[in-house]
Amino acid sequence: MDLQDLKQQIEAYQPECEQEEKDKAVMLQYIQDYPNVLTRENTFGHFTASSWVVNPAHTKVLMIYHNIYQSWAWTGGHADGEADLFQTAIRELKEETGVQTVTPANDGIYSLEVICVNGHIKRGAYVSSHVHLNLTYLFEVSEEEILHSKPDENKGVKWIPIDEIENYCSEDWMIKNIYAKLNRKLPKEC
Question: pLDDT averaged over the chain?
Fold first, then answer.
């Protein structure tokens, strides 16, 4: 898979709302303008992949306590040169939570969003503010999976009832604009 394959996946994605329509256009513009949009070398913005991980009943979401954001959050990470963001999402999910068995719960991209990232310190170096061109994938995982954190990235992993996310997450914008959207899109019959 290469950047053109990723571009075709994004072009084929049907936005659910105005936010997704606008963010889809931004992503396609980045691909057109920047050949290094799959790497962090592009300090303005680069692709990332996230997972919205639910139990089979779709009543809980698996979240990590993110070290940088100091909040419960979804799993995910940077493309780091890889155009297959579906595989990036799975890799990051497994690394950050310890789960072994992951089942895709839909075909292809579940959601897309451009996320502003404030400047922060990572591994002792300052990272300037930038955007993540994020593709989200929906997965189901059994609550019986053994969980463990990845100490260099998160301080905890837990199942959180979907209707209680706002009690755990301290990122108001993510709660209202991203996590609420992801939950609205969940298939109701499991």
Answer: 95
